[in-house]
Request: fold
Amino acid sequence: MCISVHPWLKEIMKLDIKALAGERKFGDIEKAVYEDRSRIGELVDLLSEKNGDIRSGALNLLSRVGFDYPNDTRKYLGRLIALLDDEDMFIKIDAANAIGNLGFSFQDSAAAAAPKLKALLEHEQSLVRQEAAYALGNIGFSFTDLVRDIVPRLIRMLDQGDDDEREAASHALGKIGINAPELIRGILPKLVEVLEFSKEATCGGVLFALGAIGLHYPDAVAGLVPRLMQYLESGHPNAVKNAVAALGNIGSANPELVRQAIPAIKKLLDSTDVDIKMNAKVALGRLGEQAPL
Reply:
């Protein structure tokens, strides 16, 4: 039986991924791998290259492919976890990002990665600490017990880190707190304090964490609703999307607390930012408001 193959698919199948990487044509590599996920292994092979740009490009692609197709990428997680020990700081960062997008799907891999990521929270470079925090937050969302012990360290980052580090730490605390609110309820005053001096471009994590608390303890954050509403008009998408998510979380627990925010949230349905628009739809649904199709 003869099976015909579309000409454009034949062209993709013939692409030499290693050669494309040498030419830095990662867009073509991404297309090839998404069309034929059996080629993920060829993408992983690029991690053995000496060139740091090629390795970083491969890791960034694996982060996206792994998020979209975790089961197809699962068997390569060990390679990614090993790169957390790489001497190149930027490879550590890209590996942590990839693991954060993929490792939270599988408890065995998350358990293997967690100790290395925790160690990176003490790295001398803030960028490394940030990415480790984000990854641990993702793991904590799925497997809280694996990261329960780092909550005090993340809280210290709210005091000791720069704006971006506080953003990462607070976001991680929010991810952990979604399913284990008792771990972060006590830091509400600290989050409010951090919010006071955070720039709008780097306050998204704090807003997310406040929403995590509000999901379980809406009355504790009721007084912050007007402040959260102010961020709906921010010029920074990160602030807007996290403020909407926070209001949606609070409203799912007690809709009356955020009823006044509904008109402003509805306006965001016209946003050109995909995340803002999606969060607005979700928030309105949690408030019992049907978003237009």
